[in-house]
Design a protein that fits this description.
Oligomer: heterodimer
Distance between the termini of chain B: 29 Å
Strand order of the largest sheet of chain A: 1-2-4-3
Radius of gyration of chain A: 11 Å
Mean pLDDT of chain B: 87
Largest sheet of chain B: 5 strands, parallel
Number of helices of chain A: 2
Radius of gyration of chain B: 17 Å
Number of helices of chain B: 7
Order of helices and strands of chain A: EHEHEE
Low-confidence stretches of chain A: none
Structural class of chain B: alpha/beta
Strand order of the largest sheet of chain B: 4-3-2-1-5
Number of strands of chain A: 4
Chain lengths: 75, 178
Amino acid sequence: VTELKKHLDVTGMTCPSPLIQLRTTIDSIDSGEVLEIRGDDPVFEVTVRDYCEQNEHKLLSVQSEGRVVTIQLEK
Amino acid sequence: MPDQKSATIMLFSTDLDKVLTAFMIATGFAAMGVNVTMWFTIWGANCLKKRRGLFHSWFRSSKLQKGESFRRLESDTVFQNMVEMMNRGGARHLPMSRLNLFGLGPVIFNYILKRKNIPTVEEFIYSAEQLGIQFTICQACTDALALDTDDLIVKNADVKGVSQYMKDSMDAHYNIFI
């Protein structure tokens, strides 16, 4: 299975900007596509988890290096 | 979408911090998939106004037609023009509720927001519009404060009354008044 991967970098942004960016990017991709999002807001991981739970997207992986968290999710 | 949730936010104040909070909540909720309706009344509509000159209200010719406008133009008084001079609004020119320091407070606050990479009120208004938030202005505010609904920075701002607000807020899961 070939997966198209889209990247979104929201490092340096503060809540609620990462959420707005995530929403606009999710709206522009097709269902089943994988999005990789990087951010360093302290509440970033919780935000993306809540977003996936609320909108029924699949969370694939969460990796954190220091403050920067990289999350992969499937629409 | 499991079930479409909705929220109404009534914005009454014109203070920078309160408007910013209202727009943060609105854009965040809309991004989470909530159907948000924002209501603007009295001073709250100031953040949607285009910044105009001091004497603009005296010489402007409104594009609103007399018959179909949301304002009763025939009962306008000279005091409304005076209020408009003191109350020009504009998203970049909002005062603060505390620590205004005669206009220096908002400048400092906007500098902090820029350092922290938080959008300004104007950017929040545009992103709110992109996220499909519905802007609604109170009819009484339009009438009393001589608000020109053609002269706003947002397109598609509705003008509605309190019965519509009752229907919206009773159906909504969340309603705040700032």
